[in-house]
Amino acid sequence: MLQEEKSTDVYFLKKLVNIIGDDGFQMNEVLVALWYILGLYPFVYSMLLLPTGRCENRSVPVWPFLILSGFAGAYGLILYFIFWRPPPPPIEATELRRWPLNFLESKITAAIALAAGLGLMAYAGLSDGAVWREFYRYFRASKFIHLTCIDFALLSTFAPFWVYNDMTARRWDNKGLWLLPLSLIPLVGPALYLILRPSLLAVPALLSSSTSEEK
Hints:
Blueprint: H1 2-16, H2 29-49, H3 63-72, H4 74-83, H5 93-96, H6 101-104, H7 107-125, H8 129-141, H9 143-169, H10 173-176, H11 179-182, H12 188-196, H13 209-214
Membrane topology: Multi-pass membrane protein
Domain Cardiolipin synthase N-terminal: 161-197
Pfam families: PLDc_N
């Protein structure tokens, strides 16, 4: 039984990463949507943690954990969350205009994340009852799907905190607080916040002194 379970988990993983092509087996739509949502989450977390989620004095760099989260999800971020200490260090305006921050601060990037999230949620949500019952059977029988669901739950649970952290760093908590309850909606809520949040260039307190003097 244990060997059969491991074999099933390996097969699902190979199908999801396209190592196994079209072999006649149709993957469960809910599982496929969940897998791609987990692929988007590290991208959303990068937009939330860079640069406002950086450690004080950059004592612990965030980018290695963000890269790790692309492979390990929430399990790759938890250690950074333990070591994290606010406030974030000041940032140069020129750094905001360079890669990767200019990409992560872009409203277009945020809109793509939101559109992809809505599409995946709709893909799973519109699946019929038989698909969901099949997913539930897989959930009960597969350790891989168990870990995947826990990963999804952890990323969704941590997101509102980092939305609030980013919101307060941008001095937008008085106007944007209504978005905090919406950030409880997995992926879509944080992505909506990323579209509506103000630019860091409008927050002099977070910019370095040299940038402020230039202004």
